[in-house]
Automatic annotation (TrEMBL):
Naturally occurring in which organism (per UniProt): Sphingobium fontiphilum
EC number(s) recorded for this UniProt protein: 3.4.13.19
Keywords of this entry: Dipeptidase, Hydrolase, Protease
Pfam families in alphabetical order: Peptidase_M19 (PF01244)
GO molecular function term, any single one: metallodipeptidase activity
Alphabetical list of InterPro entries matching this protein: Metal_Hydrolase, Pept_M19
GO biological process: proteolysis
Enzyme class label: hydrolase
SUPFAM superfamilies noted in UniProt: Metallo-dependent hydrolases
PROSITE patterns from the UniProt entry: RENAL_DIPEPTIDASE_2
Highest taxon listed in the record's lineage: Bacteria
CDD domains according to UniProt: rDP_like (cd01301)
Protein name, per record: Membrane dipeptidase
Length: 401
């Protein structure tokens, strides 16, 4: 999911301990998350990636100090744009917003080269992490800002984008969404323009991302893409039958083409949650006061945070999914397709996070749980970064051809 100005989760800190041995291994691994919505935080007034924040206070989940504590070396930092009207004006506004969000990511790197480095190829990640810096790949969640000009993809590629998702919560000009409000397909997969976009992605060496798109879009991508497909933040239908998750047959088809599913930690996709209508109504009213891309003052943000905290106090979420729910999806995917085709894309700062894993400080718990489940250090290394980097390397090799 894409980020809002304030994420959708309340905080309850997890207390599960990780052994010193498991923590030492976790810190040794190259760890990448394939879906960080943290760029939305970069444009918040008074917020800095350099400072340690508290998920219980401002609801953000990723910053430099917490990445160090949680042993997160980096990942794919998303340019997310919500779905707007399929009009010339809608496309223009989305394009401008996406370019500015991409510049925010580049400015974060430029402002602190001692701690962040832009990564453009699969081989860049390891040396960046070895130098103690955070790895910054760039991605696009929702290709809507490209409008009907597929050639604009090269502009974003030149900026550094190496992973692109086709759709988001609703159908757009390129593809059907898995969650369109109409509940009816528009194209029955990729549109003709979406197929042209895929060709350009393959030509430029960009990884196709099928998360948020319909199963039929995934079918088209697996049939047409000349390089493997990634699901940057998804789950398993066999564990919870939600449109955002994929079934075992699609998992196997994805793996057969060299693809990878990166496991999501977005609560409402992990299991059914008891309705909380009062909270939902209050949250909808709060979000109605915010506009994506609109500049807000520090004072306004402080007021919004106070309102959000009051909602948490009045209408607490008493049925939040847990770390065990997250691991159930991961362990199922591993059982179906094995450790060569599973990774991690928790949707931090875009709604991800569960009881027991509230922010990136808690990431060592994943390593500990995988080891406890019997997976080897080599397996865990693939899950944390080896698999997603292999897919990126394949996209680069496809470009070379």
């Amino acid at each position: 999911m894409g980020a809002a100005l304030i994420a959708l989760l309340p905080g309850i800190a997890g207390a599960q301990a990780v052994s010193k041995k498991d923590m030492a291994l976790h810190q040794k691994l190259l760890t990448l998350d394939s879906h960080l919505d943290t760029p939305a935080s970069l444009d918040l007034p008074g917020w800095s990636i350099e400072d340690e924040h508290d998920v219980l206070h401002d609801y953000t989940q990723v910053d430099l100090p917490r990445m160090k504590k949680g042993g997160l070396d980096g990942g794919f930092w998303a340019i997310y744009t919500s779905q707007g009207p399929l009009t010339v004006e809608g496309f223009r506004k989305a394009r401008d917003f996406a370019i500015l969000r991409g510049l925010s990511i580049r400015n974060m790197v430029a402002a602190d080269p001692a701690n962040f480095a832009l990564a453009l190829e699969a081989k860049d990640a390891a040396p960046i992490a070895a130098s103690g810096r955070r790895v910054v790949y760039m991605s696009i969640e929702n290709a809507y800002p490209l409008g009907e000009d597929v050639s604009l993809l090269k502009t974003f590629h030149d900026m550094g984008v190496r992973l692109v998702g086709f759709a988001h919560f609703a159908h757009n000009q390129f593809a059907d969404s898995s969650t369109d409000p109409s509940k009816k397909p528009r194209f029955g997969g990729l549109s003709p323009l979406g197929k042209e976009l895929l060709k350009d992605m393959n030509r430029l060496g960009i990884v196709p991302d099928a998360s948020h798109s319909s199963d039929q879009v995934l079918d088209d991508l697996l049939a047409l893409s000349t390089t493997p497909v990634l699901l940057s933040h998804s789950g398993c239908k066999a564990v919870y039958d939600h449109p955002r998750n994929i079934d075992d047959d699609h998992l196997r088809a994805l793996a057969a083409k060299g693809g990878v599913i990166q496991m999501n930690a977005y609560g409402s996709y992990l299991r059914a949650i008891k309705p909380n209508p009062e909270r939902q109504k209050a949250m909808m009213a709060l979000f109605a006061q915010m506009r994506e891309g609109a500049k807000i003052s520090a004072e306004t943000r402080a007021e919004l945070l106070k309102k959000r905290q009051e909602i948490d106090r009045l209408y607490p979420e008493t049925d939040r999914p847990t770390f065990d729910d997250f691991m159930a999806h991961m362990l199922h995917a591993l059982k179906v397709v094995g450790p060569d085709h599973v990774g991690i894309g928790a949707d931090w700062d875009g709604g991800g996070g569960v009881v027991g894993m509230e922010d990136v400080v808690d990431l060592p718990k994943i390593t500990a749980a995988l080891l406890k489940a019997g997976y080897s250090e080599s397996d865990v290394a693939k899950i944390w970064s080896g698999n997603v980097l292999r897919v990126l390397a394949a996209a680069e090799a496809g470009k070379a051809k």
